Amino acid sequence: MQDAPVDAPVLGFDTSGGWCSAAVIRGGAVLAHRHVAMSRGQAEALMPLIEEVLAEAGVDLTELAAIGVGIGPGNFTGIRISVSAARGLALALGIPAIGIDRFEALALEAAETLPLVVPALRGQVWVKPADYVSDSAPELHDTPPTPAISDGEGAGNIPPVHPLPVAIARLADARRDTPQPRPAPLYLREPDAAPSSQQPPQMLA
User: Which ranges are annotated Low complexity under compositional bias (predicted)?
Assistant: First the structure.
């Protein structure tokens, strides 16, 4: 694989929550950005949305230098959709796929004086302390601190500097020339599922 030009375009996308979002940047400039709210159907919507964003940006898939993908935390199924798509596209195009976690995206160019907040299940939130440049692990809280930087809804929330897919694309662009691990889902807790309470059918001899 040959090195791509410094100003080659980079694609970023995310389906870690109730949305399908994608962006294309080139040399730091945002060429196109789409965010579509949806509670389900991301698997069917992602590739058409990527095609729309690329067309709006005037960029062909073969021109991309890298792909940035959101790895969570967030919806288990949604994260797997994006990570699988990024790996497949990267393999087909011979370019790197770079996983970006949601806290990194929130923190991009933000003031290091406010905590970062990502919604969790059952009304709880994941909180990363104000010193989020460190390796401190996110903590689960029943209520979010305020004020805080968050891409969710709620009083006291301060939006991030960049929309989620734009931040993902920018971070991927900055890392594309250094070795990166394959994107993998970031799960901060086990899947919220329990075994069925129904008795299995009786097996007949």
Answer: 193-205
